[in-house]
Amino acid sequence: PSNCQVALLGYNAATSIPQDVIPKQRLCELLINRVEFEQFYGELRVKNGKRAVSTTRKRLGLIREAFSGYRVIETNLNAWPTKDLNQLRRLSAEQFETGSATARWVGMLMKPDILIAYGNEFSNLESISNFCDFSVESEVEKIHQFVDYYSVAYCNGRKVEFACITKHLSARTTGTTDILFSSIGQIIRARFDSTPVDPVESSSPLA
User: Fold this and answer.
1) Tell me, what's the pLDDT at 197?
2) Counting runs of H as helices and runs of E as strands, what totals does the chain give?
3) Other CB atoms within 10 Å distance of the CB of residue 8
4) From CA 200, how far away is CA 58, in angstroms rounded?
5) What is the pLDDT of residue 149?
6) Alpha-carbon gap, residue 68 to 124, rounded angstroms
7) What's the pTM value of the predicted model, to 2 decimals?
8) I need a labelling partner for 44 at 20 to 30 A (CA). Which of 20, 70, 151, 202 fits?
9) Per-residue pLDDT tens for 39-59?
10) Helices 55-65 and 178-193, axial angle in degrees (round to 10)
């Protein structure tokens, strides 16, 4: 996680990976091999009666493709998988904290150049501070109908840029297409590439 330049942050996964499905060591190997992990995850989803690739994962891939050439990590605010956000909120306090603590272990290691959160669940940015040491220092810039952009934020003491995609990736409303999310990825990439590098501003003033 500490070597990735781009971090894509969702809320939590929808498909669980039971302990008896795969050895822990093999799962750890897959987590750093995107191609093999997505093949395994797709097969697992099919066994559970789902499509191999969800709408969310397909559109997340389109955003990731916009950052071709960058090292990208995909992670979630909570590692406990549930069908939807309502089910996540109904977890016991112990289950919720277990999921949060697992995700936080990854979050505190990250030192990206840009953090991209996606989904309308992130309307409250303070939730990200439970995942990593996060703060926003600049005013919001609306670079797209569904993208809020902050040119100055801090993640674990490192100055980063932050984009929040306010439209849920699984949305099926009129006009919400794969092309829309591909375009959103390209717009965020263009805005990120336009920012001059300032090596002096490399650490949080609070650090």
Assistant:
1) 55
2) 6, 7
3) 23
4) 38
5) 98
6) 29
7) 0.87
8) 70
9) 998 999 898 888 888 899 999
10) 30
Can you name the residues that pair with 150 across neighbouring β-strands? 162
CB contact at 8 A, 101 and 73: no
Structure-token pair, residue 147:
């993208």
Closest alpha carbon to 114 in 10, 11, 13, 188: 188
pLDDT of residue 198: 55
Q: What is the pLDDT of residue 199?
A: 47
Hey, which residues does 141 pair with through a beta bridge?
A: 149
Amino acid at 117: A
Give the torsion sign (CA, 173, 177, 178, 179).
negative
Give whole-number Cα distances, 25 to 31, 106, 156, 178, in Å. Answer: 10, 17, 28, 35
6 token code pair: 């781009």
CB-CB contact of 178 with 59 (8 Å)? yes
Only one residue has tokens 């069908």, namely 83
Instruction: Tell me which of 24 and 59 has the higher pLDDT.
Output: 59
d(CA 150, CA 107): 19
Burial category of 129 from C-beta neighbours within 10 Å (exposed 0-12, middle 13-18, buried 19 and up): exposed
Residues in the chain: 207
> How far apart (Å, rounded) are the C-alpha atoms in residues 53 and 42?
6
Determine the Cα–Cα distance for residues 91 and 15; give it in Å rounded to an integer: 15
**Which pLDDT does position 206 carry in this prediction?**
36
